[in-house]
Write a structure and sequence with these properties.
Pfam families: TetR_C_44, TetR_N. The chain is built from ten helices and two strands. By secondary structure, it is mainly alpha-helical. The longest helix is centred in the N-terminal third of the chain and has 25 residues.
């Protein structure tokens, strides 16, 4: 072992940080697969440790609780959606079409894993991104990962709204960060309390909330009709 934390195995240099990152991801993935089948409460730390091929001691070294594991996996999915949206916007895609794709994917996940939405929603809503900037503060009893996930969700929405603003559809003085946070909170509340049956129900509810929140941010001469779209036909 060297002072830099590198390991040598069979003459091959292995970075300790890479090993830790791989183990952390394996734990989060194994935990989510168990949660998806049986729910958060039915799965024990020992179940996760066995599925991830680590000891319970190592399990808690990487994640202090099951909700931290769930948020880690969820955040990875959100980041993938953000990367895809950003890439599509850079390629010149219509912001509204990008928005449709992002919300359709998140609505699908919300319905498919509705038994996990409560845990994620409570952690995210309990950590207000608005109050967190520029110096994040952890709300009592809320995992720090809840704050990070909340900020990741808002960051997923920001590029799309910014593209709409650059097109002149939103007021130039509109606070895109604040609007992103409000939309994320509204959409999570819809998942928690909407009683949706399927993805179409989620998207219909989200469309209503989107229209309401966006109304005050519209540029002069722009109507909600200009931002209208039929989310129900989104694949």
């Amino acid at each position: 072992m060297t002072g830099s934390g590198a390991l040598y195995s069979g003459g091959v240099k292995v970075d300790r940080q890479e090993q830790d990152d791989a183990r952390r991801e394996r734990i989060a993935r194994a935990a989510f697969e168990l949660f998806a089948r049986s729910g958060l409460d039915a799965i024990s730390a020992q179940d996760i440790a066995q599925a991830a091929f680590v000891s319970r001691t190592n399990l808690y070294r990487y994640y202090p609780s099951k909700i931290h594991m769930l948020l880690a996996h969820f955040e990875k999915a959100v980041q993938a959606s953000r990367d895809d949206a950003t890439e599509r916007l850079r390629a010149g895609a219509n912001p509204q079409q990008v928005w449709d794709k992002v919300t359709a994917r998140m609505a699908d996940l919300g319905v498919r894993y509705r038994h996990l939405v409560g845990a994620v929603g409570q952690a995210v809503l309990g950590a207000s991104p608005i109050e967190a900037r520029p110096a994040p503060q952890r709300a009592p009893g809320v995992p720090g990962d809840g704050m990070r996930t909340a900020l990741t969700l808002a960051a997923m929405v920001e590029p799309v709204l910014l593209a709409m603003q650059n097109q002149g559809r939103l007021r130039p003085e509109a606070n895109i960060n604040m609007l992103s946070v409000l939309l994320v909170d509204a959409f999570i509340l819809a998942l928690l309390h909407g009683g949706h049956r399927d993805q179409r129900d989620v998207l219909r509810d989200w469309q209503d909330r989107f229209s309401l929140l966006m109304h005050g941010a519209l540029a002069p001469g722009t109507s909600l009709r200009d931002l209208s779209h039929d989310k129900l036909d989104t694949p």
